[in-house]
Amino acid sequence: MKSTFLYLVRHGAIINVNGKRYIGQIEAPLSERGVEQAWALRNWLEPVDFSRAFCSDITRSQRTAKIVIGQRDIPLQVSAELREISLGDWEGVSFHDIASRFPKEYEARGKDLENWRPPGGESFGDCRKRVLPFLRRMLADSQGNVLLVGHAGINRLILCEALGIPVKNLMNIGQDYGCVNLIEYSDSRVRLHLQNYAPLGTRPVAQASSIADARKAAH
Question: Residue 144: which pLDDT band, with cuts at 50, 70 and 90?
Fold first, then answer.
């Protein structure tokens, strides 16, 4: 029985802005720290022989993926279906401003992340409808080790699906900048072997000292 191992990565940290803001599909370049995190991922993932590599068409995802791939002779497949959730008119606006100007809408989104949409944007349910079909097609055509450099929201949706967690609870899943998750897909099961491990960055929920440690559980 063959398995596909998905190395699900979040891009590195973005250039700092004042206060927390809604960053979805707008461009937000990697910061110096973000580039360091991408290189830490590259070094940690160096032993892995990837058969395929994917990322979104947003620059921070592409740059992280290119650093991680390094000298590997595999094409990077860029897809708009892997973009972060669209936040519409809220893109780039601070949490504080939205909460102050639109308190009812701010509260409504917090209560129903799966279905509530900001003006001109997506709900996480909408986002799920474009991400999961892409994931299924990708897995159907893949074997071995696959790299996917996504975003916090995209990764959480993939992890929710793998673990059977309702979308309404997706914010309970940590996805730090520059982290990697390892999911095994086979005909009989889906298993999460590593979650939110950041070779360089904040302390993740699950730790592993090496690729070998992360993969032992798969055998």
Answer: very high
